[in-house]
Amino acid sequence: xxxxxxxxxxxxxxxxxxxxxxxxxxxxxxxxxxxxxxxxxxxxxxxxxxxxxxxxxxxxxxxxxxxxxxxxxxxxxxxxxxxxxxxxxxxxxxxxxxxxxxxxxxxxxxxxxxxxxxxxxxxxxxxxxxxxxxxxxxxxxxxxxxxxxxxxxxxxxxxxxxxxxxxxxxxxxxxxxxxxxxxxxxxxxxxxxxxxxxxxxxxxxxxxxxxxxxxxxxxxxxxxxxxxxxxxxxxxxxxxxxxxxxxxxxxxxxxxxxxxxxxxxxxxxxxxxxxxxxxxxxxxxxxxxxxxxxxxxxxxxxxxxxxxxxxxxxxxxxxxxxxxxxxxxxxxxxxxxxxxxxx
Amino acid sequence: xxxxxxxxxxxxxxxxxxxxxxxxxxxxxxxxxxxxxxxxxxxxxxxxxxxxxxxxxxxxxxxxxxxxxxxxxxxxxxxxxxxxxxxxxxxxxxxxxxxxxxxxxxxxxxxxxxxxxxxxxxxxxxxxxxxxxxxxxxxxxxxxxxxxxxxxxxxxxxxxxxxxxxxxxxxxxxxxxxxxxxxxxxxxxxxxxxxxxxxxxxxxxxxxxxxxxxxxxxxxxxxxxxxxxxxxxxxxxxxxxxxxxxxxxxxxxxxxxxxxxxxxxxxxxxxxxxxxxxxxxxxxxxxxxxxxxxxxxxxxxxxxxxxxxxxxxxxxxxxxxxxxxxxxxxxxxxxxxxxxxxx
Lengths: 343, 343
Known about the structure:
The structure is a homodimer.
Chain A: H1 9-18, H2 21-25, H3 28-41, E1 47-48, H4 55-62, E2 64-66, E3 72-74, H5 81-86, H6 96-109, E4 115-120, H7 122-131, H8 139-147, H9 149-173, E5 177-182, H10 190-207, E6 211-212, E7 215-216, E8 219-223, H11 230-233, E9 240-242, H12 249-257, E10 265-270, H13 279-293, E11 307-311, H14 321-339
Parallel strand pairs in A: 1-4, 4-5, 5-8, 8-9, 9-10, 10-11
Antiparallel strand pairs in A: 2-3, 6-7
Helix pairs in contact in A: 1-3, 3-6, 6-9, 7-8, 7-9, 8-9, 9-10, 13-14
């Protein structure tokens, strides 16, 4: 998650040249450069596009910006019937800078590791579109949801169709897997999550390309705070579920990770704050995450349960880069031991 | 949850007289007045002491204050070995103002409804003690937890013993039930929750008085974001578990609410943001929460599953008081219909 970023001095240097976050994300050369920076330092198994989850509402005309040291902010918020009526699926040409970055990064990677594209989920986009920024209580977006569910459904349908077009264009441009970040699904009440988040993630998935140039394109879905809804999420038409650090991996594997038509690979789930401990402590926590999922099935004729090691959410800007090095080393050495049957 | 507060104009008037939040909480007359204000407006079934979850660290000498429009802040944070070494269970005389308020409120209530006392959980107190204020990422407290688990365990043991003394003194002063708010348990990784939050909530419960003056004192535990851990929380020695709005009540009832030695009554779990919808919409959401738990057992010789209707967390300061009136009316009328077998 968020491999590039403010914890890397070389990222800060490139961002300073670019002048702003969006200046970085919209410039093909800079976006390529910062996407590849973590791979120069660490032996990672995949790269993730450097961009933001909120490029779609920006292309809808809402005016995305990032003040230094703050989160995202929109110049225009969507808070009433008239504002919702003005929304439409944006012209994908306005997002050309993202697709150009994908193509440029694929070329620069030159087959070294696969490239993951991504977007925010329809619900997560709606949160920012209504609130206009991050929120502690999601009061404005939930007021619309409970008071005017018709408007909320209209906005989510537009968002879902836009996300699907956007991810398909990333696939056309060269993304070899795509991930949907439902960063704020976990703030919803149980029934509301199913109606306003999960249903629209499913609407995106139903429209996604399954393959490109004869190669399968895996689809990953991450709902932060979604650990209680794994049984519902198992029904999603995707290959991988991302899990935050609150989830017990053994339980998740038993619920959704074993063989069967809807079985999912599981991605996660180390608490990024572990990276403030010592290398030996990081190693112990990595081992505990891997052991908690358990060994893969040994019958190699079966497509058995799979874990993709990852952080449970974004990395902190204060993380020492040496901690990431210790983390990647520990994942490789401990999983090698597990595969050899040593644990 | 938080029946009194900034959504009530009469509360704002009393707070203005008191000068500050702590001025309000430490004055017996004011604390009594604001505790009773919601009962003058709404036919509620219980009262909850007006106070703060952070009075204990304040009594430890950390200096609690509330700037207008902001959350709590400590003058001194606990971030290293020397600061932890200085911590001790505070002299309960420093919290006399709380016990005096309890006695005064009991007298003013005069048997009308029972009075609930409360405290923050050991882990939630530790979060604020280390961070010094609220936090987005709990980086400082988790850094201590992962880097120096020995210090964290030491602080939590002191907190737990202080919370137990504090709640027992509230019981002596007249509290007829006590609630432990584990507001930040849900930010922990699965294994860390069990080791650093749940274990210390259990340490508090083990020390609490079971009865006072021959009357049983029910104990309630609420972990925000704890829905994934209900099976572990079922083992707690308490009568009630509070649930936030993300929890499916039917599933929770099946897991922990049915008869048996460890069965719990369940408290919750309406999203407080529902109170920004219309009265008819509030009524529909209330019915849906009550129906989701389902009817109580009809065999009255059994101590069957019990639901205590509540919000899933604190009420927003922007809530229209009329919405609370609609809510309380809907709870009473719909649960009467359910008990009569009409649903």
